[in-house]
Amino acid sequence: MKLNATQAVNWMIKTNEKIQKQSDYLSQLDRDIGDGDHGINMARGFQAVEDTLSNEEFAEVSDVLKKTATTIMSKVGGAAGPLYGTAFQKMAMTSKGTEVDSETFSNMVEAAVEGLKQRGKSEEGEKTMIDVWSPLHDALKETSEFDGEKIREIAHSSMESTKDMVATKGRAAYLKERSKGHLDPGSVSSYYVFEALSETLEKG
Amino acid sequence: MKKLINDSNDIISEMLEGIVSAYPDSMRQVEGTTCIVRKDAPVKNKVAVVSGGGSGHEPAHAGFVGKGMLDAAVAGEVFTSPTPDQVLEGIKATDDGSGVLLVIKNYTGDVMNYEMAAELAESEGINVEQVVVNDDVAVEDSSFTTGRRGVAGTVFVHKLAGAKAEAGGSLAEVKGVADNVIANVRSMGVALSPCIMPTTGEPGFELAEDEVEMGVGIHGEPGIETKKLTSADDIAEELTENVLPELELNASDEVAVMVNGMGATPEMELYVFNRKVQTILADKGIKVHETIVGEYMTSLEMAGCSLTVLKLDDELKELLDAPSKAPAFRK
C-alpha cells in the first residue's frame, strides 16, 4: 500500500473536516489547561490548507505536504503553527522524490518527531503532541505494513495516555499538577490528523 | 458575550485600522500585514526594536510604537503569537542595515514564531538579535518548564531598549540594555474576574464572587492559586512580597514601579493598591524614581492588576527618563 498525491490531498481535506467539526472541543480542552484558542487556530489554519490544496495540482506527496506546511506556518500562529508547520515541512523533505510506502512514512514521522523536539525544545512525556507522534513512529518502524487501522489505534491510545501526564512544556506547564487529568489539546488534534490518514488509506 | 465589536473575525484588522487612524502622525500599517511601524521607518542609522505578540493586550503592543520606543509591533490573533512571515515583514520594514532587536515575551508560541522569523531574516542578510522577557515571579523558573512568563515588565524593556536605540546605541548595546532590564525587572498579577475570548465567548477560568486568582497571566489562563478576596492592602502586600526578594534591593536602591490594570479595573482601585505598595517600599527605605499607574499590558476585560518593579542603575534611569512619542507611553 502506498500513499499518492491525490490521497495526500484527501488526507488534508479529511483532517480539516475533523478539525472544523471538533473546533469547539479542542478549544474547550485548551481552556482547561491552556488559553482556549487551539480549536480556533487549527480551524483557521486547516481551512486555509483545504482552500489552497483544492485549487492546485500536485505531482507528489511531498509537494502537498510542503504546501500544507507553509500554509499552516502563515495562518495558525501560537505554538501550534510552528510545530505543525515544522512537522509537515520535515515530512515533505523526507518524502521528496520517493513513493510513500510504509517505510518512507515511518521515516517521515521520525523526521517530524525530530523537528518537533528541536522546534519545541521538548521530549517525550511532557504532555505535548510529541506524545502522539513519537509512539506512532515506534510502532511504524516495527512493521512493513501501511495499516490505517493500526495507525489510528496507536494514535488514539497515545492521545489517551496524555491525560495522566503532568505538563512540563507549553502553557499548561504553568499549572503543574493541575494539568493532570486533562487531555493535551495538541495530542488530540494530532490524533485527528492520523485518524484522517487512517480513513484515507482505507477508503482511498 | 457582550462586546463592542462587529464580526469577531474582523477584530484584529479593524483594531489596527483604528489605532493607525488615531495616531497617524506616529505610525502606519505595513500594507497587507498586521505590522504597525513608526511612520518614518526605517529610521536611518538606528537599530530597530521590534516586538509584538498576541492581541488583546492593548495598548500593547502597537501603542508603544513611536520615536523613542518601538519601531514595529506585530499583532497576532487574540492571545496568539503572530506568524513568522508577519514578524519578518516587521523586521524588513524597520531595518535600515543597523540591525534589529526582537523583544519576545516568554511563551512557547511567541519564542518559536519569532525564532523562525529571525532565521528567515538572517537568511536575507539582516542582522537580528533576540531577547526573551520572563518577569513573572508567579511561575517557577525550572529547567523542567518553559520558564517564567513575560508580562507587564516587557513595557520597560520596550521603553529602555527603545531609548538606547534612539540614542544611537549599537545592536549589541541595545541588546545589552534589554538584557539588563530583563535581569532587573519582576512582576506578578492578580485577577478578580476572568476575560471573555471574543472568538468563543467563553471565560478562561471560573471565579466565585468572593474569589481572586493569584499569579495570573495575561491570556485568561488560570493562575497558580485561587483564594478568597480579602483587601487591596493584603493583595498589594502579597504581590510586593513575591516581587521584591529576587531584586535583592538595599535601602539606597532606586526602582521604577508599574501598577498595571488588566483591562477592567477602575483606576481608583489601582491607586488604592499603589498606596499600599508605596508604603511597603518606603518602609524598606527603597527610593521610587518613578511610578506608572494605568493600563499598559491588559488581558481583554479581565479585572485585576499586576505589580512590576524595575531596579534601576544610572543608565537605566537615564533611559527611562528619555523622551518617548509612543502614544501609550508619552514622556
Secondary structure elements and pairings:
The complex is a heterodimer of chains A (204) and B (331).
Chain A: H1 5-33, H2 38-54, H3 61-75, H4 80-95, H5 102-120, H6 130-140, H7 148-161, H8 185-203
Chain B: H1 11-22, E1 27-29, E2 35-38, E3 48-55, E4 72-78, H2 84-94, E5 100-105, H3 108-123, E6 128-133, H4 153-166, H5 171-183, E7 185-193, E8 211-214, E9 225-228, H6 232-243, E10 254-261, H7 267-283, E11 287-294, E12 303-312, H8 314-321
Parallel strand pairs in B: 3-4, 3-5, 5-6, 10-11
Antiparallel strand pairs in B: 1-2, 2-4, 7-8, 7-12, 8-9, 10-12
Walk me through this protein's architecture.
The complex is a heterodimer of chains A (about 200) and B (about 325). With about 200 residues, chain A is mostly helical. Chain A has one domain: Serine Threonine Protein Phosphatase 5, Tetratricopeptide repeat. In chain A, about 70% of the residues lie in helices and about 0% in strands. Chain A has helices spanning about 5-35, 40-55, 60-75, 80-95, 100-120, 130-140, 150-160, 185-204. In chain A, helix 4 (about 80-95) runs antiparallel to helix 5 (about 100-120) and helix 6 runs antiparallel to helix 7 (about 150-160). The relative contact order of chain A is 0.15. The model of chain A has no long low-confidence stretch (mean pLDDT about 95). Chain B has two domains: about 10-185, Rossmann fold, CATH 3.40.50; about 185-320, Dihydroxyacetone kinase, domain 2 (Hypothetical Protein Tm841, Chain: A,domain 3), CATH 3.30.1180. Chain B has eight helices and twelve strands. Chain B has helices at about 10-20, 85-95, 110-125, 155-165, 170-185, 230-245, 265-285, 315-320; strands at about 25-30, 35-40, 50-55, 70-80, 100-105, 130-135, 185-195, 210-215, 225-230, 255-260, 285-295, 305-310. In chain B, the strands form two sheets. Chain B has a six-stranded mixed beta sheet with strand order 1-2-4-3-5-6, with helices on both faces. In chain B, strands 9-8-7-12-10-11 form a six-stranded mixed beta sheet. In chain B, helix 2 crosses helix 3 and helix 4 packs antiparallel against helix 5 (about 170-185). Chain B is globular. The mean pLDDT of chain B is about 95. The interface of A and B includes residues 41, 75, 79 and 81 of A.
